[in-house]
Amino acid sequence: MSLEITRPETEARIQRYLQSGQFNDLDELLTKALDALPEPAVPSSTPPAQAANLVELFEPVRGLLTDGEIDTLFSRNRLPSRPIDLS
């Protein structure tokens, strides 16, 4: 595999790290940098199941929250609002 670095500032940063002696070669520097990143998600080989209706769509999350938790999360804002003059 060959890589092309197109930004001069990126190349300069790499050169500084290599010249500092902190890394022996570019491979070691890239390995350390990649280890700091979160592992990418592996795409599933099976397509997601299609739901025929909303009940089937939300079946996997049924029962995860209690009625009280749902009321807390999805209740309307009970703060008094400004009166609206509809006349």
Global geometry: elongated
- Let me know the largest β-sheet: none
Rg: 27 Å
Which structural class best describes the helix and strand composition?
A: mainly alpha
Amino- and carboxy-terminal Cα gap: 73 Å
Total DSSP E strands:
0
Order of helices and strands: HHHH
Give the helix level as a range of percent: 25-40%
Q: Tell me the strand percentage band.
A: under 5%
Unreliable stretches: none
**Can you give the mean pLDDT?**
84
Q: From the structure provided, what is the oligomeric state, counting identical versus distinct chains?
A: single chain
What's the number of helices? 4
List the helices and strands and how they pair.
Layout: H1 8-19, H2 26-35, H3 54-57, H4 67-73
Walkthrough of the structure:
38% of the residues lie in helices and 0% in strands. It has helices at residues 8-19, 26-35, 54-57, 67-73. It contains four helices and no strands. The longest helix is centred in the first third of the chain and has 12 residues, at 8-19. The relative contact order is 0.05.
Quick recap:
The protein is mostly helical and 87 residues long. The chain has 4 helices and no strands.
